[in-house]
Specification:
Elements: H1 9-13, H2 25-49, H3 55-72
Helix pairs in contact: 2-3
């Protein structure tokens, strides 16, 4: 049971901002992909900063994410 002060873990870890641009399905999908990309890059950089992954591993993971992101465009 949640109390009024608890934070929903899903919304905390994966926040979503509403889309303010011109609505088209393509723009909406691009916006969602961009938000997911930025969240994942943030997680990877945090892991690298805290020493959990090497800089090379972080770079290769971000490069893979970038390739997927640009392919979705």
């Amino acid at each position: 049971m949640k109390d009024s002060n608890s934070v929903d873990t899903q919304s905390f870890l994966y926040p979503r901002s509403r889309y303010y641009g011109q609505f088209t399905p393509a723009n909406l999908v691009f916006n969602a992909n961009l938000q997911e990309f930025s969240q994942r890059v943030g997680f990877i950089t945090s892991l690298q900063t805290s020493g959990k992954v090497s800089a090379e591993e972080a770079y290769s993971q971000i490069e893979l994410l970038w390739d997927r992101f640009t392919a979705s465009k």
